[in-house]
Amino acid sequence: MGINEKPSSERVHIGFFGVRNAGKSSVVNALTGQKISLISDIKGTTTDPVQKAMELLPLGPVVIIDTPGVDDTGVLGEMRVQRTKEVLSKTDIAVLVVDASKGMQEMDEQLLALFKQKKIPYIVAYNKSDLLSDIPQRKLNEVYLSAQTGMGMDALKEQIAAHFKNTSNGKHIAADLVKSGDVVVLVTPIDESAPKGRLILPQQQTIRDLLDAGVIPVVCRDTELTAALQALAKPPALVITDSQAFGKVNKLVPKEIPLTSFSILFARYKGDLDSLVAGAAKLSELKDGDKVLISEGCTHHRQCGDIGTVKLPNWLKQYSGRELQLDFTSGGEFPQDLSQYALIIHCGGCMLNERGMKSRLESAKEQVVPMTNYGTAIAQIHGILKRSLEPLTANKA
Question: What is the mean pLDDT of residues 70-81?
């Protein structure tokens, strides 16, 4: 992904829901002006959620998600319905597509109840309204449209955009911790698990965040960190490191220089840092036989030195001194039932949008299962969590 492209995790996620043959896919195609989804008169043509990152004016960069009908039947149908409901965890705004000629169905009402339960903003889009003899007076959050004729599509776009018109939160990954003209050193280890020819997404996003604020980022590997610090005319305002090099970098960076990690910054940026810090305390309370879930928000080819499946489990075993049972999940896979786990350790969540990350945190809270993330856990394991949080708490003060 180019550094000038907006990652999917930073885009508004718009989910389209409804029963089979309500015309969800037709509405998606008409709204976007692209053939994103297959359409036909056969019920259940959309069998899995279809996701597409694109520009949607007047809103801007978005992710469009078309889902299977929630009234699908049979064993496969139940699985598709479950996948549809999983999409809700990352949906910023839901569009419920209803066949205007048939009116609201029982399953539509159930979806509305789910939107409200999960506090997801929603719009009810009455499709096939060209078949009505008279268009009813619309209520708040409703629009009457026709994917066939194009009627009402602009109104749907405007309603979606209106939900986000004043939601620019001005949040930063790291730029608010320093000031314009400051130098920030970013430590990015390059080993067998690093992607070829590029930086990983959190590093790209942090660099861009700093550049936009007039901060001067200096990027180096951990093997050149000492040389980079010596080459600077004055100490940097902040050092940010990849979590896997936390222990080494902590020894190389003088105590008077603030130090934190990409993972901790992203926990603050899109999650709940206080909860994740509290979850890290559980690391010292683990018992023999405890089950720990190590979860990543993306999928990638795992190398021999993979942090999630190799390095973190080794550090965890050494730190706890316990025989633990470890489970691993990645991408969209995240268990609904978390009650079996004594602790969840999640990645930084750079590939998840804010709602997706918070949904996982909320699920853990509801089931009273402690949750932390890679950077916080690794800092705790290496005895440097207090130091890594100081740049963030100093800013609060």
Answer: 65
